[in-house]
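Q: What does the assembly look like in three dimensions?
Context provided by user:
Components: two
Sequences:
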Amino acid sequence: MSKLRKGARCQICKTKGETKKAVVYLPHHRLSLCKEHYIQWFEKRVEKTIKEFKMFSKKDKVLVAVSGGKDSLALWNALVKLGYDADGFYIDLGIDDYSQQSKELAQQFAQRVGRPLHIVSLKEELAPIPEVDRITNKPACSSCGAIKRYYMNREAKKLGYSIIATGHNLDDEVAVLFGNTLHWNIHYLKKQYPVLMEEKGFIRKVKPLCKITEKEAALYTVFNEIEYIEYECPFSEGASSIEYKELLSKLEEQHPGTKLQFYTGFLKKMYPLLQEKTEESQPTVCKLCGEPSFTDICSVCKLKEKLSKSGNVSVNH
Amino acid sequence: MELTVKYRGQEKKINIQKEKIKAEDILKALGLSSEYAFVVKNGEVIGENEEVSPEDQIKVINAISGG
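A: Here is the predicted structure of the complete assembly.
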C-alpha cells in the first residue's frame, strides 16, 4: 500500500489524543501525517542528517546554492527555521525566461526570509549557458555543473562563508549513484558522499536533503506556500537523470524504501571500501586564475579560451 | 467529465470517462505516478482517493526534475 488510506488520521496527532485528517502518506516510513506534523517531520529529518554527517553547526556561515527550484528553496527555508546562519547564492545562467523567472522567485524568497541573496551573472563573468552550449560538445548540464561549482566555490570564499549547501535530494543522489554504478565510474563513486570536506582551495560542500525525496521536498514547499519555478530548464530535456528517476520510481512503487536502502547501503558499505588504497590526483591551482583545479588549467579557464577563440568573450582571468 | 488542471505552469484540459473523479485518476490521465506526483485542490494537498469536481481549482505537481 503506497497511497494515503481513505479517512486516514495523522499518526502524531493520534498520540496526542487528537484526530486530525492526514494529507500525506510516506510509504517508506509508513507514516500518515497532517500538514503541521509533515512540516515538523521534514525539518527534523534535515536537522538529523546535518548532525549525522557532521555537516556544519550553528556557528558556521552557510551559503545555500539557490536555483529558484523547490529543493534549494525548501532547504533554505528549513535551515533558517532551524536557526542556522544561512544566506543564499544565485547564479544567473542567462537562459532566457527560465533564468529571469527563477531569479525573481529566488529574490522574492530572500525577502520573505529576510536573508541576503548574492547574485553572480554568467553574462558578465563568462557567457550565458546557451553560448557555452554552442561552443562545446559536452551535454549542457555537464558544462553548467562545472561552471556553477567554480563560481560557487570562488564566491563563497570571497564572501567569507565556510560551507556551501546544495539542494541535492535523495532522488538526485540515487539517480547519480545508479548511473555511476551502471558505468562503473569508480572515480565519481569515490566522491559520492553528502559531505565533501574542504581541501586546498575548495570549501566544504554539503547536501542536507540527501535523505529527502523529491516529492517530500515539493510537498514541503507547497505546505509552506513557497513559490518556485515549476517547469524544467530547457537544456535538461532528455537528461539521463530523468530517465533513471522514472525507472527507479517504478521499483520504489513496488518495493517502498528501495531508493533509501540503495543510497544508505552505498554510504555505509561501499563508500568506505572505495576510500582504501587510492592514488587519487591531488588538487593543484589553475595556472591562469589561481582557483583550485585537478588539471593545470581549470575547466572554466579552458571554456574562456574557447569562447575567446569563437569571439564570444574577451579573456579575463 | 472534462477538467482543467494547472500543470508545470500551463493549463491542461483532461477528459476522464467517470462520474466520480479521484486525484489518482488525474495523475493516471497525465501519465504520472503518486510516487513522485500529487494533486492540490483549492490550495490544499489531497490524498489519491479524494474526489475532485470541475468547479475545483486543480494543480498537479510533478516533483521529478533533471539536470
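Follow-up: Chain B is about 10% helix and 45% strand.
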